[in-house]
Amino acid sequence: MKKTIAQPLKKASWVHELPSYTAILDNNLRLIEATTHWFKHSNLNREKALGKCIYDLFPEIEQSWQDSFEYALEGINDIKLNQHSETNTSCATWHLSPWKDGYGNTIGLVVTIKIDKGDNQQNTVLSQINNLVQNPEDEVTGSWEYIVEDGSMYWSNTFLELINLPATTHPSLKKAISLLKSTADRAVLREVIRAAMTSGKPWDIILGVTDAKKNLIKINVIGRPKFKNGKCTRIIGVIKEAKLNGTVNPEAHKEITTTTTDGFDYFNSTPTGLLLVDRRTLKIKRINNYLLSIFGKPEKVFLDKSLSEFIAINDAIRNQIEEELKTSYSFKNINLRTSHEKTGNHLFNISGNLVKQDGQDFLFISCNEVPNSIEIEKTYARKLQKANEDLDNMVHFAHMVSHNLKGHTTNFDLLLNFLSTETDENERNQLTSMLYQSTDSLTRTTKGLRELVAIRHKINHIKVDLNVNEYIYKVIQSNSGLLKKKNFKIHHEISDELTVKAIPAYLESIITNLVLNAVHFVNKNDKPLLIIGVEDKPNHLVLSFEDNSFGIDLIKEGHKVFGLNKKLQNMGENTSMGLYLTKYQIELMDGYVKVESEVEKGNTFKVYFPK
Amino acid sequence: MLKKILLVDDNKATNFIHTKFVKETNMVEEVVAFQAGENALDYLVETDVFPEIIFVDINMPTMDAWEFLDRFNELARIEKENTKVFLLTTTISPTDEEKVKAYPIISKMMFKPLDVPTFKKIVLPFL
User: Fold this and answer.
1) By CB distance 3.0 to 4.6 Å, which of A99, A222, A418, B10 could disulfide with A108?
2) Which residues, numbered 439 to 458 in chain A, qualify as contacts with chain B under a Cβ-Cβ cut-off of 8 Å?
3) CATH 3.30.450.20 fits A1-138, yes or no
4) Quick check: A556 contacting B, CB < 8 Å?
């Protein structure tokens, strides 16, 4: 790589060396004010010059200078332009820097001129060359421009030299993309161009370029879109060599650090955790409010403490970070966990950039909290289990529908065929009786199916606070005839104020099914009783339905209690359909049902409603 | 002629129809039908003539075919070694297909209702 050409060199300390040849321009490059020395050097009359555009004041300013003025307006600091005078031996260097208001907005340019005369000029050039040799981190910047309308590109000579391309190379976007070594880099460049053109987003990225000698060079590519009438008309930018030896170009760092310093308010108000950490000692130099709010501790707890006190950084991770810093000055997407009594247990995804301030390396780290992975796994496991159960239910349902309806219809068909050919009166009567029974059976089946379909229809209904007593009363009223016939007593001591969060139709169905289940179970005495109780648990409100029936042998029949259309001992002619529906409905409301039972003592069904 | 076929199906109409079809084959001396597995097992404990073939509906409310077969395997009847079981269903679920493998006594799982030619085909090898 050639570095012998005196290109616009950056110098970090120009602000501290404020020269007396200074002019201030507005955003349209019109002269606002300048020092006397500046007017004198420029041979301009102050009164006539004020308010005029710099290009009108200096018609000799060429296109490459105009680009530099644009870059300066875009925020690039201290662009230097060498002005050669044909009339005398003096030579001047123009320094361009953005002029910013108190909010960091560019409102114009500050132009200062440094004058070198005769030997001094020669000395300056020599000095610059020496600096390049002695300070290999100093950089050469090449400029480029992309005209959106016709797709044409301009590459400066330095641009070509930076990537060892012959001067005859025809610049084009396609060619620029083809220079990139990796597909990923090509995709990145395409994406930043797209983002720049659509949303005006500038970029500052490092890409791997294959030069004409097939060497891989890491190039820092900076681009900024320009808009006219709301449309992106061109993109201007610069390229410079990115240093990969682990030491960093101080000028590059100056920009990053400056941004950090300028953005102090952003640092504290940004909605993500930020840290500034000493690269060598890992001591925390700055921590932003967002991160402090996560930890709930004051800043002093963290400042000047090693990051490793709070975050589990082992050697392997530290090596990984250092490796990444060497190749790209940054590291990305490393998951680290805090496990400190002052920070609590958090998992962060961290990324960081290397920045330099006052000759010292810092890591500027963003920390995004990752929800607890164990919790995520548990949540997914629960969802998967629920999905599997739903699937099982659906398959079960499909089988039940198929089994029951198909069986019925085929039987009808066969019985009717028999009936049409049967002449014996007794046989015909038997067939007719069979048909009636099949009709009853089919009616029961379709009723069950209708209930299931109705339940699914109400699945999206919202859970509301429901008065439990009102629903119990409603169910008792609806079934008063049956309860009276069976001499069945229901006792409950539930407060009139008690409410439960549930879907109204489901709550009524659950209470109905559990009451009727108790009624249908064969009772050991002639005083059947159901006690409805309530229990207030931390996460659930539990309604219990305790009867004095013969109970269920849970060892033998436990698996059938909430089964679809199962028949338990002591259940009489009824099936477990009601219990199946109860389980189905309470689970749809994210609750669950349990049964406790002892043979000859009775059953207790407990329904857990989530709070 | 086959001595006895046992039908176990909670659906009374299916039992009725199958009984008629088996009789129509004229290949079986006696057909006995039960709607509950429990009753069928009680019968098997007591009967003098053990059935050569048993047709069992898979999905029954009180005792399904699997529980019936588990209890059948526990029966202290030497004759059961010569008995073959045919499972009946209206739909064959993957779980049922898997379960069949665990019961060597099962000859086949079949869709019900069966018809006369099918009964004949099943009975013929036993004659």
Assistant:
1) A99
2) 441
3) yes
4) no
